[in-house]
Amino acid sequence: MKKVLVTGGTVFVSRYIAEYYVRKSYDVYVLNRNTRAQSEGVTLIEADRKNLGDVLRDHHFDVVFDVTAYNANDVDALLDGLGSFDDYILISSSAVYPESCVQPFDEHTPVGENKIWGKYGVGKIEAEHTLQARVPGAYILRPPYVYGPMNNVYREAFVFDCAMQERKFYIPRDGELKLQFFHIKDLCRFMDVLLEKHPEKKIFNVGNEETITVKEWVQTCYQIVGKPLELVPVHQDIEQRNYFCFYDYEYYLDVGAQKQLMSTTEQLEAGLREAFAWYLGHSDAVNKKPLIRYIDTHLAIE
Predict the structure, then answer these.
(1) Residues 41 and 118 in one domain
(2) Boundaries of domain holding 16
(3) At what angle do helices 268-282 and 156-164 cross, to 10 degrees?
(4) 168 and 120 within one domain
(5) Are both 214 and 136 inside the same structural domain?
(6) Same domain for 238 and 227?
(7) Would you say 188 and 17 are in contact if contact means Cβ atoms under 8 Å apart?
(8) Are the CB atoms for 12 and 150 separated by under 8 Å?
(9) Residue 282, SS3?
(10) pLDDT at residue 289 is higher than 60
(11) Which of 190, 239, 245, 247 is the most exposed, fewest CB within 10 Å of its CB?
(12) What's the rounded Cα separation, in Å, for the pair 113 and 99?
């Protein structure tokens, strides 16, 4: 039985990872401050990763899944507090690529500040560099938008809400902005591949090979809910995030290296169906933003 550590373990990506490996009969430890409910089957190590003391010192982990490192200090603090481990996988982000670089971004694209993502992307770059310097054998994953069950970010859930309320959907311009997604289960599946094959390559873009327009994405969500869709294009010069759940930013990752190791990914419609089924029973777990209120106040015309 492999013993693994998941940083976090109570929200979306880290929670799904913890429960995924519990289902695989791993000995799963989660590191968090115990401010939220814990998943069944995990062993809690209650601590702040920034102030670990000796709580990890006597443990050996076969794998460390680091989901909650947002800057170099986070990585340093965890590595300083760990006892010993074999493998280390850091969940980074596609936000490390500057928006000005040629697309699709591949793993050789120079990293740097992205004006859309700002400090978040810069912090992830620092986390990557620190980890590479201290643990050269660690793996680093750079996903686009992650979706699926347990997603607490108000993205697909926003569209589901609009559909369930049979609302018109206010969409940016012509709806041709393209997005790239990755199902949370595929993230776990790819980590399985890394742990099995241990490729020499250490940094991977991960995601669906294909992109989808926001119009197609919204249409798919409405179809899943089973409600008719009426799109209302928004051409006003207003901040898109006031009424829509993504930035006005289109980018595309080259995931060819991932595909060589894992040839298939979850079909987006099937993944969104899973997300909707989960949301029906867990709507209170999503951090809802006042997008509908903004639409009703500033955009809706009766």
Answers:
(1) yes
(2) 3-147+182-205
(3) 70
(4) no
(5) no
(6) yes
(7) yes
(8) yes
(9) helix
(10) yes
(11) 239
(12) 8
